[in-house]
Design brief:
Number of strands: 0
Largest sheet: none
Number of helices: 9
Radius of gyration: 18 Å
Structural class: mainly alpha
Distance between the termini: 27 Å
Shape: globular
Order of helices and strands: HHHHHHHHH
Length: 204
């Protein structure tokens, strides 16, 4: 069992470090609302991963892998949400003179992190196809799926904690008007790009 856990840790670690919409979400929340906002976004994303992990363990996410309609519905909702966030950031970036809570605060960061993750069907398909490869023969599938998903969540939280710690000290630089404008519009473009990527995603 230990070799499988080590192999999963390495594979999941590489995937966790790969930049994605979750990384962009945490970075922006940290820049806007400091450590509290970044941590809130990270916790929202982690809760979404927990939900997908439980769904994989119970076989619920198999529906996304098997049903083109279910996958398409979640995919369109997720892409639409990312498009909305991106367009709003491009068209209505923050005003530099606004206080940090004007960017939405911790509650908004948490909600956006959770919603973005839950509306990404690729996470569910990834869990239902990836986790079983690391379940030992004769092992309890449900228990091991939960264990592996929990390990992935811990790796994700550790990575996001590092991102928040690196971003917060740059607060003064990130608060400059030109930087604020550029950061919001750049993040908006990233969200739109990931929304387009999600819209074009196929089940795999």
């Amino acid at each position: 069992m230990l070799p499988l856990l080590l192999a999963f840790t390495v594979a999941a670690g590489v995937l966790t470090l790969t930049p994605g919409v979750d990384t962009a979400m945490v970075l922006r929340a940290s820049a806007v609302s400091g450590a509290r906002g970044g941590a809130a976004a990270a916790l929202g994303i982690a809760l979404g991963l927990c939900a997908w992990g439980m769904g994989a363990a119970l076989g619920l996410t198999a529906l996304l892998a098997a049903s083109s309609i279910a996958f398409a519905v979640v995919k369109v909702a997720g892409a639409g949400y990312l498009f909305y966030l991106g367009i709003m950031l491009i068209l209505k970036p923050r005003v530099a003179a606004m206080p940090p809570q004007a960017g939405g605060g911790a509650a908004t960061a948490f909600r956006r992190g959770l919603t973005t993750n839950l509306l990404n069907p690729k996470v569910g398909v990834f869990y239902i196809t990836f986790l079983p490869q690391f379940i030992p023969p004769g092992g309890d599938a449900v228990l091991f799926c939960l264990l592996l998903a929990g390990l992935h969540v811990l790796l994700t939280l550790a990575w996001f904690a590092a991102l928040v710690a690196l971003t917060v000290p740059l607060g003064r630089v990130l608060a400059r008007p030109a930087v604020v404008l550029g950061l919001d519009r750049l993040t908006g473009c990233v969200f739109v790009a990931f929304g387009l990527r999600l819209a074009l995603a196929e089940r795999s």
